[in-house]
Amino acid sequence: MKTFTTRRDIREYLTSQGAATIGFVPTMGALHNGHLSLIARARQGNDITVCSIFVNPTQFNDPNDLKNYPRPIAEDMAKLEQAGCDVLFNPPVTEIYDDNEQWHLNIGPLEHLLEGDFRPGHYQGVTQVVYKLLDIVKPDNLYMGQKDYQQFLVVSRMVSLMGIPVKMVMCPIERETDGLAMSSRNIHLTPAERQHALVIFKTLNWVKANFNIDNLPTLQKDAMAKLAAEEGVQPEYFSIVDGKTLLPADANSETVVALTAARVGNTRLIDNVLIK
User: Is 218 strand, coil or helix?
Assistant: First the structure.
């Protein structure tokens, strides 16, 4: 695996590869099997697989969250080597951002719903950094996980608005054997909290099994109650939405998704399930 830390060096290398197709997996590191499944998908469909590890400061609302974000770069590099990744881009912040840089992209209601409501400004930071990374790597295909469903929609909207010639590929959620969605944040859970966190996936499955388009307000209310009843779990939202707009689902919704966020102890977890 080749590793680059500057825009110029990775750009020169990728340009030297001629017409080879590039699959790109952007990450913030602390890699788990969910990330590695994206690498596997990229390898299947491209000549060169590129992964970036960059803890992006502009998408954090809480300075402590940024400071405490895990950065096990040696372990991450070993995992990428084993997964057959071809190129790692691991730049310092100064390589990505100039001083006093401004960015605002109007992505419409997507920015302020669900995650956007609880993390104001978060998606401006996401679109800012992904735009920069796409401009550097210039991939043919971009691989992102379903677990960050709203992020996938936001980046898709940015790609469309900016006319970036990349194909977006959403990959399924990877779960632990007990159903917990794989996340870099799971390492912060105590053994007891991890057991309590299982209520998230159980509740999503319960909603899927009991889905009724005419009864969404009751379903959402009951789901919130199930989460809140679990010790140490504080739900932030549980929404059953149209998979294209994240607005409330209705009979005309071709795709329906249930999305939720909850704090388990001090750890904030998100998860979702495709209902239709």
Answer: helix
**Residue 100: its pLDDT value, please?**
84
Residue 103 — very low, low, confident or very high, per pLDDT cuts 50/70/90? very high
CATH of region 184-271 = 3.30.1300.10
Q: Indicate where the chain has its CATH 3.40.50.620 domain(s).
A: 2-171
What is the per-residue pLDDT for 2? 98
Q: How far apart are CA 151 and CA 143, in angstroms?
A: 12
Active-site annotation holds for 35? yes
Task: Point out the catalytic residue in the list 32, 35, 104, 122.
Answer: 35
Q: What span, in angstroms and rounded, lies between the C-alpha atoms of 202 and 121?
A: 30
| Record: fold of 2-171 | Rossmann fold (3.40.50)
Distance (Å, whole) CA 269 – CA 261? 6
Give the pTM. Answer: 0.96
pLDDT band at 54 (very low <50, low <70, confident <90, very high): very high
User: How many alpha carbons lie under 13 Å from residue 115 in its C-beta half-sphere?
Assistant: 26
Residues 6 or more apart whose CB falls under 8 angstroms from that of 55 comprise: 28, 29, 66, 69, 71
